[in-house]
Amino acid sequence: MAERLQKVMAQAGVASRRASEKLISDGHVTVNGQTITELGTRVNPGDKIEVNGSPIEGSEKLVYYLLNKPRGVVTTASDEKGRTTVIDVLDEVKERVYPVGRLDYDTTGALLLTNDGELANQLMHPRYKIDKVYVAKVKGIPTNDELKALRLGVVVAGKKTAEARADVVRTDHKKGTATVQLTIHEGRYHQVKEMLKAVGHPVIKLHRERYGMLEVADLLSGEYRALRHDEVQYLKNGRQIRKSSGRL
Fold first, then answer.
1. Which residues are designated catalytic?
2. What pLDDT was estimated at residue 48?
3. How far is residue 123 from each of residues 49, 69, 243, measured CA to CA in Å?
4. Which stretches make up the RNA-binding S4 domain (predicted)?
5. Are 227 and 115 in a shared domain?
6. pLDDT tens across 131-169, in order?
7. Residues 6+ apart with CB under 8 A from 152
8. Which terminus has fewer CB within 10 Å in the chain: N or C?
9. What would you measure as the largest C-alpha separation in the chain, in angstroms?
10. Which residue, among 146, 138, 216, 215, has the nearest Cα to 177 in the 3D structure?
11. What dihedral angle (degrees, nearest 10) is formed by the CA atoms of 41, 45, 50, 54?
12. Are residues 107 and 225 in the same domain?
């Protein structure tokens, strides 16, 4: 049965569907020797698909991994500065996986990696609204009014953030710090850090403890595991389990 070219490329582990679309639009993909630039082009089983002159392999087994990302690791497949990437951490995974979304270099915690381009595209779409639970150690102790502002949305880079859940789970009056648990479903650049900075509490340390229903409480820093079948189905069906430990 004919499938969209970008879908076949994503399922073969070439790149995410969005990245595959860019490869097509930029003229890097040929089908049976003909350069294809039109998105939505359908291909049939047996068609010869090449990216920059290299044929793609047949659809590989779809795999899904949850990583407790360590600090000092970049969320990319490769890094021009030679820094350790999340792909380096998953050194025993044979399939060509890529991260779903990003965590900052100095942020730790739950990161999903997969070669399922369709699911990755779905999870990163703004309409999906998957919960992402962060625990942040911040300077100062947020007031009730500041927490209310986080819950209602604050202006970051000229745009108001969506409603969130925000709670103080620990305070250290001697050091003048607090641990804040913040649940968001957007994925804007440095969003958690910028939200907390906007209410006067810069982040000292940041950890994402949960992505959807996937928690990393049982994984040491740098450890990863394959997702169970039911977890994959939860992600595909858009169902979430709302629970959190509040650890940092």
1. 104
2. 85
3. 26, 19, 19
4. 3-68
5. yes
6. 999 999 999 999 999 999 999 999 999 999 999 999 999
7. 163
8. N
9. 69
10. 138
11. 160
12. yes
